[in-house]
Amino acid sequence: MRRCPTEAIRIRKEKAFIIEERCIDCGECIRICPNHAKYAVSDPLDSLKKYKYRIAIPAPSITGQFPERLEIAGILGGLIEIGFDDVFEVAVGAEIISDYTQKYIEEHKDIRPLISSACPSVVRLIQVRFPSLVENIIPIITPMDITAKIAKREAVKKTGLKEEEIGVFFITPCPAKVTSVKEPVGETVSPVDGVISITDIYEKLINHIDSIVKRNDIVKSGKRGIRWGREGGENDSIKGKIRKLSVDEIHNVIKVLEKVEDGKMEIFDYIEAQACPGGCVGGIFNKENPFVAKERIDRLAEKINLESDEAKVVEENIKEREMILSEKITPRPITLDPDINIALDKLEKLNEIEKKLPGIDCGACGCPTCKAFAEDIVQGIKSIDECIVILKEEYKKEKEKL
Amino acid sequence: MSEIRLSFEIKHNDFDRAGSASSNLKNSLKQLGYPPEDIRRVAIASYEAEMNVVVHASDGRMEAVITPQQVDVWVIDNGPGIENIELAMQEGYSTAPEKIRELGFGAGMGLPNIKKNSDFFEIESKVPDGTKVHFIIRRNSGK
Questions:
Q1: A254: pLDDT confidence band, cut at 50, 70 and 90?
Q2: Which of A173, A262, B63, B106 is the most exposed place for a label (fewest CB within 10 A)?
Q3: Residue-level pLDDT at B142
């Protein structure tokens, strides 16, 4: 409960409850809870059946999930064997996005630093906790989205099927991506049709790892794109004279964003920020230890070309406006009240209540901090006698009276 | 009329807690639903003013009055005061010692930055009594 970076969790009726509008889908609660009180939902493999032609678009971080001997060709071959008709790596789209990001940074010098839009949790963190930094988010679509667009377009050409008969499935390490497909930020509809967790395909592949047919013919990615799966990989892939900072793990990201807010990070052109420790390799649907996965991604990336030839070919057919977010990302701050006069009164009360509270953040009241408890009291959700420390004092006084 | 008064202590040379006053002020404004652009300007101005106390002065405090119309901030310290305010207001002018500059502070942008980000700015200083920086950021004045 206390681990949550946006104080979204409360204990109600002995169960952990998430306040939806505060949740940024970072997965910290899933990662930390020893009792597995929280879990994430993705689409079942069965949902493939809804489409005539199914394309898997695996996240670059998938490269680190299986024993090295399977190689990238084996992972992609495995996806074909479990029911996909084709595979198009997001690492290819990542390279295209990297090139456009470089161009965008070089052409837009009015806002510094620009912040990557690739991690959906970071984007939502900014909307909720750093509303003044919404303008710093680079308005470029994610590698997942561009890959889905390309994959669908190519499949229409190749098969002659209608768009709606083709299903594009993102293979994800990240529960936040499930939300960003269902409720996209900065776009009206996601070009992705379904999201399947790495957990769901892991066992299917690992159980017959040695019989999987390696498909070198469908491996199109380069080292640049593959390394997006780990922290620093995105920055390394962006060329040019750009001063870049890389930060991973949500609490570290918050510290950096605080500094951006205070106007102390303007020397940087670009910030790659990722909610998970180690970047996407730290995503909670992953199976492999993130540090091991990181090293493995680097080793496998060494075996392929730096640049993807495929990315160069498809890049030529993509218009720049296709890579720009169609809608503005809006701030979504958590305020005490929409009316500032009422909000001021509530804040006054909140500060008064907070002074009375012990300030030890014990959590017994079901709120992560005394401050959050005070906020819940002001909002009429809690009452002050739910504080166990205050109750104890009262009890002591009563006892002395007797 | 609704208003709220906030008061925060600032400790000289305490780099672990440095920034906590402006951070508290910033968070209060977020809870009040102040426009993001205004919060950004308050954040920059109050952080600079707070850091001036941490780096150059003695202990001090930050007082803020928030109303639906504006954020009024005073940052007051107990000395040693600024010898030449005109010089201190020049961009790039700094009296910060090398060890402070190594920490990334003392670039000589502090006071000019506060002025730039506020709608009203005044500074009073007396050697050796101390300095009082007062600035106002009006709601919705950013854009």
A1: very high
A2: B63
A3: 58
Cβ–Cβ gap A333/B68 under 8 Å: no
Scanning the structure block, which residue is given the tokens 């990662």?
Answer: A31
Most confident of A73-87, A179-193, B13-27: A73-87
Instruction: Report chain A residues whose CB lies below 8 A from the CB of B23.
Output: 258
For residue A335, give the chain B residue with the closest CA: B31
Query: Which residue out of B31, B44, B109, B143 would a mutagenesis test of the A interface target, given it has the greatest number of A Cβ atoms within 10 Å?
Result: B31
Q: At what angle do helices A143-159 and A90-107 cross, to 10 degrees?
A: 130
For residues A170 and A191, what is the distance between their CA atoms, to the nearest angstrom?
A: 10
Q: Give yes or no for a contact between A311 and A222, defined as CB atoms under 8 angstroms apart.
A: yes
Mean per-residue pLDDT, A249-272: 94
Contacts of the segment A65-70: beta carbons below 8 A, 24+ positions apart: A65/A173, A65/A198, A65/A202, A65/A286, A65/A287, A65/A288, A65/A293, A66/A205, A66/A206, A66/A209, A66/A288, A67/A209, A68/A296, A68/A299, A68/A300, A69/A209, A70/A205, A70/A209, A70/A212, A70/A214
Contact A85, A55 (CB under 8 A): yes
Element (H, E) at B140: none
Q: Please indicate whether, in this complex, the C-beta atoms of A345 and B68 are within 8 angstroms of each other.
A: no
Residue with tokens 């649907």: A285
Query: What crossing angle do the helices spanning B20-31 and A340-356 adopt, rounded to 10°?
Result: 130
A344 with B4: Cβ contact below 8 A = yes
The verdict on B129 touching A (C-beta cutoff 8 Å) is no
Give buried/exposed letters for A141-151 (b at 16+ CB in 10 A, else e): bbbbbbbbbbb
Q: Note whether A134 contacts B68, CB cutoff 8 Å.
A: no
- pLDDT tens, B52-80? 888 888 889 999 999 999 999 999 998 78
Dist. CA A364–CA A386, nearest whole Å: 8
Nearest to B47 among A132, A262, A334 (CB): A262
Select the residue of A334, A342, A344 nearest B3 (Cβ to Cβ): A344
Instruction: Give ∠ CA A290-A213-A148 in degrees, rounded to 5.
Output: 60
B39 contacts: CB under 8 Å, gap ≥ 6? A131, A132, A261, B26, B29, B30
CA distance B103 to B97: 10
In order of A168, A295, B132, the CA distances from A61 in angstroms are: 18, 11, 53
CA–CA separation, B44 vs B118, rounded Å? 10
User: Cβ of B31 and A263 within 8 Å?
Assistant: no
Query: Over the stretch B7-45, which tens digit does the pLDDT of each residue have?
Result: 999 988 888 888 889 999 999 999 999 999 999 999 999
**The predicted structure's pLDDT at residue B104:** 67
Q: State residue A40's pLDDT score.
A: 83
CB within 8 Å: B4 and A348:
yes
Peptide bond into A173 cis (omega under 30): no
pLDDT at A13: 84
